[in-house]
Amino acid sequence: MSAIELNGVSVRVGERSLLESVDLSVPEGAHLLLVGPSGCGKTTLLRVIAGLAAPAAGRVSLFGALASEGHRVVMAPEKRGIGMLFQGGALWPHLNARKQLEFVLDCCGTPRAQWKERVAELLEWVELPGYQERMPATLSGGEAQRLALARAIASSPRLLLLDEPLGPLDEELRGALLVKLHELHQRLRLTVIHVTHAPLEAREFATRTVRLRAGRIVDDTRNDGARA
């Protein structure tokens, strides 16, 4: 089954076209790199998949179910089984690590009796054991981004959308986070769409690279050498 099917998806703001007749099929378990120059529509495409932007035309289906058709929203964003990780993490500055994760667990209906164990499990997965009471301002850049990753997967999503998650990190931290993303991709059997300006860094982990230009797909290359 395909995790994502986009058919003729177009997005416009006034007279400006952000995406134009995009067709894209992503199988379950893929790790797809989405690349292209600034302003080409990469983030807009993620927002359409997540249900945060409505296409002017076209259909979006997720795991075989219609999510949107043109402006008609069929599946609400919170029902799409999606986790998102943004550049800089976008952590809530007033919540410690435990409360960042508990907020998501509460929203996705995890019984309160399971929260403590689940928070500990998530922090262990991202190599932040014992960080439950740490505030975002006390974390390094790499720690903050790993906590943001734990928050993105706290709801047990089937699909993970990454919008330049490595941007604010130095070379060593980028490499470490890429390895962690790959480990979680394999462990949780996630489908990953990864927007990046540095595709060479992530290519050994990705199964496919799609290039956008001016809102259109101009290249779609499968990577047979991706790390298993």
Shape: globular
CATH class categorisation? Alpha Beta
Which structural category fits the helices and strands?
Answer: alpha/beta
The number of E-state strands comes to: 11
Largest sheet: 6 strands, mixed
CATH topology: Rossmann fold
> Approximately how much beta-strand content do the residues carry?
25-35%
Give the averaged pLDDT, no decimals. Answer: 90
Secondary-structure element order, N to C: EEEHEEEEHHHEHEHEE
CATH architectural arrangement: 3-Layer(aba) Sandwich
Biggest sheet strand line-up:
7-8-9-3-10-11
Portion of residues within helices: 25-40%
Q: Number of helical runs?
A: 6
Number of domains: 1
Query: From the alpha-carbon coordinates, what is the Rg to the nearest angstrom?
Result: 17 Å
Ranges with pLDDT <50 over ≥5 residues? Answer: none
Straight-line distance between termini:
20 Å
Under CATH, the homologous superfamily reads: P-loop containing nucleotide triphosphate hydrolases
How are the secondary structure elements laid out?
Elements: E1 2-13, E2 16-27, E3 31-35, H1 42-50, E4 57-62, E5 65-69, E6 72-73, E7 82-86, H2 97-107, H3 115-125, H4 141-153, E8 159-163, H5 171-188, E9 191-195, H6 199-202, E10 208-213, E11 216-222
Parallel strand pairs: 3-9, 3-10, 7-8, 8-9
Antiparallel strand pairs: 1-2, 1-4, 4-5, 5-6, 10-11
Would you write up a description of this structure?
By secondary structure, this protein is of the alpha/beta class. The chain has one domain (31-49, 77-222): P-loop containing nucleotide triphosphate hydrolases (Rossmann fold, 3-Layer(aba) Sandwich). Helices cover 29% and strands 31% of the residues. It contains 6 helices and 11 strands. It has helices at 42-50, 97-107, 115-125, 141-153, 171-188, 199-202; strands at 2-13, 16-27, 31-35, 57-62, 65-69, 72-73, 82-86, 159-163, 191-195, 208-213, 216-222. The strands form 2 sheets. It has a 6-stranded mixed beta sheet with strand order 7-8-9-3-10-11. A hairpin with a 2-residue loop joins strand 5 and strand 6 (72-73). Helix 4 packs parallel to helix 5 (171-188). It is globular. The model has no long low-confidence stretch (mean pLDDT 90).
